[in-house]
Amino acid sequence: MQAWTQYGSLFLDPKKEVFAMPELPDITVYVERIQAMAQGQVLQGIRLANPFLLRTAEPAPGEFIGRKLEQVFRIGKRIVLGFSDEHYAVIHLMIAGRLHWRVPKPPPVRGKTTLMSMDFSNGSLVLTEASSKRRASLHLVKGRKGLEVFDRGGVDVFSCSSEEFREAITRQNRTLKRALTDPTVVDGIGNAYSDEILHRARLSPFALTGSLGVEQIEILHAACKEVLSEWIDRLRAQSGSAFPEKVTAFHPEMAVHGKYGQPCPACGSPVQRIVYAENEANYCPTCQTGGKVLADRALSRLLKNDWPKTLDELERLRSGSLGEDGALGKGPKE
Length: 334
Ligand SMILES: [Zn+2]
Description:
- This protein is 26% helix and 20% strand.
- It contains eight helices and twelve strands.
- A hairpin with a 2-residue loop joins strand 8 (114-120) and strand 9.
């Protein structure tokens, strides 16, 4: 039998890593570290291992060689490297794409997990993707105007006013989880930080945006700013002067994300989850849903009509036939 570790709600092969898309705090730290390592340097070479990575035909990668890296910034969850004369390289890491800084130059790029290397005189920026699904992308763009297509239009929680935030969130009546993770509504937030923000704001992930009062939306906006800036600070401190090598959506310091079955740090109730599509939302019923345990399709199927409506009922069910670990649906593979 293999040894499995439970990490949050996911049973993981200890040798494997579970990947999730880097969000605003991770991207911010990547941008800052690339600035520190490579800004001001001249690009000496660009090596592509996989033809699918590059999604544009013009300008050619060769046109970037000999150009100075003048600025690094983000557009949503994309990282933009701005070279001289408005030549931009736009990188989207998607789920399993990660960046690395290698000194000296890494060995020849081979297309297993290493997809690209941008070589500077003092080191190389290397893109890897640890998945057979090739989702990470590189767009090469000439002219600032060419960057506009990458802006999905979501508000920046740090710079928008409370009115702008409210207008964006309530434009459509949908669940808070969906609104927060939609890049056309809010910029840079995904599955992990939306769980953390909603827990901080004490709002249910499945409350409808149209049902929120002005004050609740202000609390949500404040929670976005608080949680994201706390995490930017924390990830900055963790990476220090090195390049971030452990970019993950699961952190022991998180309150609810990836913490299914573990005690909520605010009240001690076990964190719950809803599995939907390929995602799951984690929340604390006491802090966020008035004690109600929300119906989860995967769990509902298992429990049929026995679906517990309250935390007390859930606890009773668990101490009975379902075992104490709370791992109802997904068990370890043997
Ligand atoms: Zn709680």
